[in-house]
Specification:
Helices cover about 20% and strands about 40% of the residues. It has one domain: Beta Barrel (OB fold (Dihydrolipoamide Acetyltransferase, E2P)), CATH 2.40.50. The chain has about 110 residues and is of the alpha+beta class. Strand 6 and strand 7 form a beta hairpin. The strands form two sheets. Strands 1, 2, 3, 4, 5 and 8 form a six-stranded antiparallel beta sheet that branches. The chain has a two-stranded antiparallel ribbon with strand order 6-7.
Length: about 110
Amino acid sequence: MQLPIIEVLSEPINRRGTSKATGNPYDIWTQVAWLYSASEPHPTKFELLVRDGAVLPKGRLTVSSECFFVDRNGRLQVNVERGLATLSATLDGLQQQIKSDKSGAATAAAA
């Protein structure tokens, strides 16, 4: 299974306004990103909501299983901020795992 890749392209963008329903002011912070998925031929542009000042670094990121969780109502939810990792760190981890698997197989074959 190929994990999707998210490429963050912008610093946070602030939108300020006043709610039509309540008349209260609001601030919404977002970042522009692209989603690269194996099931789509082209990347999809989207906005990430910046919560509690959790600004994501620019660059390519990949999700981990920590992004997925079941909420209190029993529904599957996705929260990308919970489990993003830089793509280079993820690739380094995979390379280490491959080396470990190869050395384990070589040790088992020698025994």
